[in-house]
Amino acid sequence: MKTLHRNDLKGHISKNQIKFIRQLELKKFRQREGLFVAEGPKVVGDLLDCGWKPRQLFATDAWTGQNEAIRVSDDELRKISFLQHPQQVLALFPTPHDHSEAQPSLLESHSSQRLFLALDGIQDPGNLGTIIRIADWFGIATVFCSYETADAWNPKVVQATMGSIARVKVCYVNMEELLRNTTLPVYGTLLDGDSIYGQQLSSEGIIVMGNEGNGISPSVRQLVGHRLLIPAFGRGAESLNVAIATAIVCSEFRRRQ
Length: 257
Prior knowledge:
The protein contains 10 helices and 10 strands. The chain is α/β, with parallel strands linked by helices. The strands form 2 sheets. It has a 6-stranded parallel beta sheet with strand order 7-6-5-9-8-10. Strand 5, helix 6 (125-137) and strand 6 form a beta-alpha-beta unit. It is elongated and about 60 Å long. The N and C termini lie far apart (49 Å).
């Protein structure tokens, strides 16, 4: 797509450009083009501040960013936006290659950041995005995802991170291989675990969180050395949302430091 400048006249988005951007909602097109969509001043601003270079920016006059952008009307932004209420700016960023795949040896390269999250089959984009945001809050620099986990570059995931995708590295791995070859302690949340509040927790390790409906898969469960349970103090709710559970577990790990 041709790059235009912010001071260009409105009306430069063609039907082909609109179609191109809308196709990026699908994983196969994101992978083919090597691009993902970020929207809104917060998410786009955080990516820009962290040094991410956009392939293209589309912005209304309300956006105060100084970067080069195609100037669009509110109506044009609505046509390319994936949000119910578009927010001033939409950007196309190249998907970083080093975030898409990872080998277990990556664990050993983080000498100062040795607490990791490992997501085994998280399906809901909102949950995945929120967990990435939680990792950012608790200073967890890398999140490992099984191949069955939702795509981190889905527009819904990127939006749910609220900019944390700019700071947290998300890597897709063979989860069993990763856990089988690490020397770090492996923790996992399981219904047959022991209360997290009574267990010893290390300042380093891998915290495994499982699928929304089925929890940690049987093959991965066998590799969990420390089984954690978040005890229920009430009698009504049957389970916790996985993102909320992740926040509780991360908070308890950090509290112990």
